[in-house]
Structure formats: C-alpha cells, structure tokens
Amino acid sequence: MIHLQSLTDLQLVKLYQNGNDQGLETLLLRHKQKIFTSIYFLARNRELSEDLFQETFIKIIASLRNDGYNEEGKFLSWATMIAHNLVIDYFRKNKRMPMVHDTEEYSPFDVMPERSRNGEQEMIRSEKHARVRQLIEQIPFEQREVLIMRHYGDMSFKEISDVLDINLNTCLGRMRYAMIKLREIIEKKKVNLRA
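RE: above sequence
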C-alpha cells in the first residue's frame, strides 16, 4: 500500500498522470492553503478568490493531463504562478485592481494550517494575523505582489521575476522596498507582532 503523504510532489504528479486521481487529491490537500492565500491576498474578495482558485486547479489539471508540468520547478511555485496569472488576467480583463479589505467574517489566514492551540494561543494568533494583514494592505501593490509570491507562494525571486515579466533586480528591489515600508509602518504605529 502506498502512503501518498510520503511521496514527493513530482511522484504525486506522475501518479496522477498515470491515472491515479489520489495523486492530484494529495497535491491539492498539501498545497491548497498556500495557493488560496496567495490568490486572496491579490484578489481581496472571498467569492472571487474561490472562483479563481477553482479555475487555477482546472488549469493545473489540464496542464498535468497534457504533460505541461515542468519537472525542474517546484509544484507549489508552478501552481502559484498559474494562480497569479489568472488573478492578473481577471483584473486586466475588468480593467481594475481590487481595493476591497478583509471582512470580519473571513481572512486568508483562516485557511492556513493550524497546529493544536488552546483558546489563548488562538486569540494571540488571530490578533497577530489581523496586524499582519493591516500592514500588508498598506504597502504598494507591486511590492505587495512580490512579498505575497515570495512568502505565501514559496516562489524564488527568479520565478517571481519570470511571472511578473520584470528583471531580477526589479523584483529584488520591490521586495526590499516592501520590507522597508513594513518596518517604517511598524515603527510609526509601534505595532507589536510579538504579542
């Protein structure tokens, strides 16, 4: 009996391409939180994010069936790149970028993996995530985009520069400025992320 959780992403891709749907199911369960979070941070709307997430996996399935997966790249980075392109295409088509803020009912951090926590730890976690969300919303979109792809999409700077069609130095610069801006905001507002 194969323990799917112990297989690498590439092994799961091959398993799926050889007709075992559990390979794809395991990949989806393994990476759905990070992919959805990266979509949500860009789209800023739960319903739209869910639609784009579904579209992302439809495109992933089609690519895997047509042997469109590049074995040299990491599956998560590849999938995040597909998701990012779908988000950007959606907003180009509609000629607007999202300005919607998180609601009390939903946050992208809600879909991130949780370890068992007691009530107090969960409150602290929720407060930290709310603070981080507020900080990320305050940096310019181009910087936020790189930050999200790097930290939530687990993409390398080279992969990000390819997806965004910018040179590597521009990508690194945007990340640097995002971090500087975050530090400035933290110092100005005296935000405590260690609570």
